[in-house]
């Protein structure tokens, strides 16, 4: 057995420094390049990545370089590898039963009447994975050799890399029962059937040349899954007993990132017949000593894989020493999680203030930090004293920099009283809004954005490059808004939107217009599949130098007599989708953002906007994985939304939008937001959430999405009608709104118009039906 490397990372961004993978995959989807060409481009991206990682100090031949490439999603990779392709895609298998890349993409994106796998948030991050569907009779068998091929490919280039696979417990714990599975069936029940396939996979990886394999088991840290900690730990015990005994396997590293392992899981893993364990020491404490560690390498995740701050190297080094005291055979250093959650390289950011840059570390800089700490482990702490001192100096500089603390912002926050967080009675607001708006039953609306066409992106790029001036650009945007308004009038929607053409991104747009933020040029982070976002960096106290959205909203409203929604991004989402300062509690930062939004809402109201939507799609994703941390989180997050919106008058209808369907988990928080209307995602789960809404007694307006905008599929009138029937059968009619799952910006116009037509036709039919039966 070869020793585990002293320094490693749990994963690396796979989209490419210039989003090369996005371009390649999307050109393949449009048919511009064939599969062979896609594979060639992906292989050259992997080669460049390996080279870069070696340059940054990870060993070429000691398994320090992880193989974390994925065409779409790491959970889908594992599901496909073990053959868990839903029945509806069965015909896409090759003759020998294996699952080709085309079927992989179809499972991710859907085809015709067959919806794709559901997508949901990966732990408390902004990454989305595809939810495997497991049935009592799913046949597990090794159905793809992709992991092994990556190892061989690396070997051929002179590397011994470490394949990374989502572990069997996590794969099943994140899966959902396939449609038609009997009541009470749990995917984890299938663990014993799945394990032989994982064992076989390990053997093939060894044969391909892997000396180590990393099995990611973040499910073991979560308290937010259907399975409880005891069940998960018991599953891990069985799983690793079997995998430990697999024949001709690589050494196994089990990684448990994102939070602290439960005591039960820690004891189980410590005793398991595997060779190394990685724990997240940025979100969890150093665990206590446990039986079985004497034979293992403990990998301390002390470099934060989730933020962009340079951090405190001295503190990281001290934590490694604590870990060393547990008496394991060896200690190694790693990032706390995969680096897939951070951008590639601060060196790629010529526009950032050099002082800010000196406080930052993106993926490549974090690898540098890992390499320094690894040297410390090998040569002793004194050997890295200079690097530790430099990191401490950068931290001290940041604390004293102008803008990090702004007196006026702080005074306003201190003066807040509880009345600033509450609106009046809902019943009174509801009556005032009905009177002011006069909407029909089942009002139809969209979530805000209309397709961001090539024309829009080109105009923005030309404006950014200075090829067109502000007047020309604004003129273009006005035309676009006018087009979107008349399209919505023609379609027959009841509450219109301006379409958000001026926004590249719902958070970055606000970040660009608020003080306290910096925006990156190349800081892309994968959100799902081929989609990436560019989170802003919230480094200082936040304030609003001038109104942001008012002129667009009022222009759109001037074009129509129907109500146009003002459209803002809420404080929690602005925080969740930015890299946020780590030097004060998140709640304080959230209230600063909330106050800026509160001023914006007041300006929108004064300008005659009657409906204002404050999007909080990230409310659920920031929810801490550990239950004891959840109440405090819900308190500040809900509080900041209320602070942002509570200044609105009774007749102003406040909407919010949330992008997921696990409504039950945060229903109390959603109710506590006290929005007048809430739109949520529901189409992919075919309205499952409606039952949760009913049982929760949620009494304000609610729009369960009827159109899955993550897929190019156009929902039929019948399909939308079914979802509406379900909604009106289970909920009071006056509560129900009709809308897509989310914004339309990633869709094309053809499918958008076709889908909205079907939605409106289905709504009209349902309205007639309920009128007749009333
Ligand atoms: N208003 C935003 C849009 O329509 C909301 C997007 C989101 O929830 N992610 O694009
Ligand atoms: Zn959404």
Would you kindly provide a written description of the structure presented here, covering whatever features stand out?
This protein is an alpha/beta fold and 774 residues long. The protein is 42% helix and 12% strand. The protein contains 26 helices and 21 strands. The strands form six sheets. It has a seven-stranded parallel β-sheet with strand order 1-5-7-8-9-10-11. A five-stranded parallel β-sheet has the order 16-18-19-20-21. It has a three-stranded mixed β-sheet with strand order 12-15-17. Strand 7 (212-216), helix 8 and strand 8 form a beta-alpha-beta unit. The longest helix is centred in the last third of the chain and has 25 residues, at 749-773. The radius of gyration is 26 Å and the shape is globular. It starts with 19 loop residues before the first helix and ends with a helix. The mean pLDDT is 96. Zinc ion binds at residues 447, 617, 657, 659, 742-743.
Task: Tell me briefly what this model is.
The protein is built from 26 helices and 21 strands.
Bound molecules: glutamine, zinc ion
Largest sheet: 7 strands, parallel
Overall strand count: 21
Shape: globular
């Amino acid at each position: 057995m070869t020793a585990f490397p002293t320094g490693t990372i749990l994963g690396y961004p796979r989209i490419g420094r210039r989003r090369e993978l996005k371009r390649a995959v999307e050109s393949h989807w449009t048919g511009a390049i064939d599969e062979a060409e896609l594979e060639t481009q992906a292989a050259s991206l992997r080669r460049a990545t390996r080279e870069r990682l070696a340059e940054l100090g990870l060993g070429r031949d000691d398994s320090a370089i992880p193989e974390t490439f994925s065409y779409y999603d790491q959970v889908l990779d594992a599901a496909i590898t073990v053959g868990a392709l839903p029945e509806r895609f069965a015909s896409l298998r090759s003759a020998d039963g294996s699952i080709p890349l085309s079927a992989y993409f179809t499972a991710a994106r859907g085809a015709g009447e067959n919806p794709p796998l559901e997508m949901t948030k990966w732990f408390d991050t902004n990454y989305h994975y595809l939810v495997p569907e497991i049935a009592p009779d799913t046949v597990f068998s090794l159905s793809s050799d992709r992991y092994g091929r990556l190892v061989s490919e690396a070997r051929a280039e002179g590397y011994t890399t470490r394949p990374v696979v989502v572990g069997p417990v996590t794969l099943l714990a994140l899966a959902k029962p396939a449609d038609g599975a009997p009541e009470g069936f749990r995917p984890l029940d299938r663990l014993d059937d799945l394990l032989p396939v994982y064992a076989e996979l390990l053997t093939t990886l060894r044969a391909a040349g892997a000396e180590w394999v990393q099995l990611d088991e973040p499910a073991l840290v979560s308290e937010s899954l259907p399975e409880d900690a005891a069940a998960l730990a018991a599953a891990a015990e069985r799983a690793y007993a079997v995998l430990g005994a697999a024949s001709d396997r690589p050494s196994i590293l089990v990684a448990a990132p994102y939070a602290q392992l439960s005591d039960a899981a820690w004891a189980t893993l410590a005793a398991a017949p595997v060779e190394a364990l990685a724990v997240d020491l940025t979100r969890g404490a150093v665990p206590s000593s446990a039986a079985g560690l004497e034979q293992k390498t403990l990998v301390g995740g002390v470099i934060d894989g989730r933020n962009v701050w340079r951090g405190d190297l001295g503190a990281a080094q001290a934590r490694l020493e604590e870990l060393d005291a547990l008496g394991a055979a060896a200690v190694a250093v790693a990032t706390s999680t995969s680096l897939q959650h951070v951008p590639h390289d601060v060196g790629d950011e010529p526009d950032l203030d050099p002082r800010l840059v000196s406080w930052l570390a993106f993926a490549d800089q974090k690898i540098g930090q890992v390499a320094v700490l690894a040297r410390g482990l090998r040569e002793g702490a004194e050997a890295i004293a200079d690097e530790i001192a430099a990191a401490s100096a950068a931290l001290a500089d940041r604390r004293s920099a102008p803008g990090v603390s702004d007196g006026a912002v702080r005074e306003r926050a201190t003066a807040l009283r509880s009345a600033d967080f509450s609106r009046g009675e809902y019943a009174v607001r509801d009556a005032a809004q009905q009177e002011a708006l006069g909407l029909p039953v089942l009002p139809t609306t969209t979530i805000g954005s209309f397709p961001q066409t090539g024309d829009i992106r080109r105009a923005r790029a030309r404006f950014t490059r200075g090829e067109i001036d502000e007047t020309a650009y604004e003129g273009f945007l006005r035309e676009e808004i006018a087009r979107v308004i008349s399209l919505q009038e023609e379609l027959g929607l009841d509450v219109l939107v301006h379409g958000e053409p001026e926004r590249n991104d719902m958070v970055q747009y606000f970040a660009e217009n608020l003080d306290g933020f910096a925006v990156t040029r190349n800081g892309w982070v994968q959100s799902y599949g081929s989609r990436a976002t560019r989170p802003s960096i919230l480094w200082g106290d936040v304030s609003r130098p001038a109104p942001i959205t008012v002129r667009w909203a009022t222009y759109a409203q001037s074009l129509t007599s129907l109500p146009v929604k003002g459209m803002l991004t809420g404080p929690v989402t602005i925080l969740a989708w930015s890299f946020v300062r780590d030097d004060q509690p998140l709640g304080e930062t959230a209230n600063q953002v909330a106050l800026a939004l509160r001023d914006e809402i007041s300006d929108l109201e004064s300008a005659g906007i009657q409906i204002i939507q404050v999007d909080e799609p990230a409310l659920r994703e920031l929810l801490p994985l550990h239950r004891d941390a959840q109440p405090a989180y819900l308190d500040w997050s809900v509080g900041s939304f209320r602070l942002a919106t509570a200044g609105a008058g009774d007749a102003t209808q406040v909407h919010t939008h949330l992008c997921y369907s696990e409504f039950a988990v945060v229903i109390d928080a959603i109710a506590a937001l006290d929005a007048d209307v809430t739109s949520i995602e529901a189409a992919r789960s075919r309205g499952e959430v409606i039952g949760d809404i009913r049982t929760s007694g949620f009494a304000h307006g609610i729009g369960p999405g009827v159109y899955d905008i993550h897929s190019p599929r156009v929902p039929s009138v019948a399909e939308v009608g079914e979802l509406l029937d379900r909604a009106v059968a289970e909920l009071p009619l006056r509560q129900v709104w009709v809308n897509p799952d989310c914004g339309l910006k990633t869709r094309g116009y053809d499918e958008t118009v076709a889908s909205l037509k079907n939605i409106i036709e289905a709504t009209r039919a349902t309205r007639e039906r309920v009128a007749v039966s009333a």
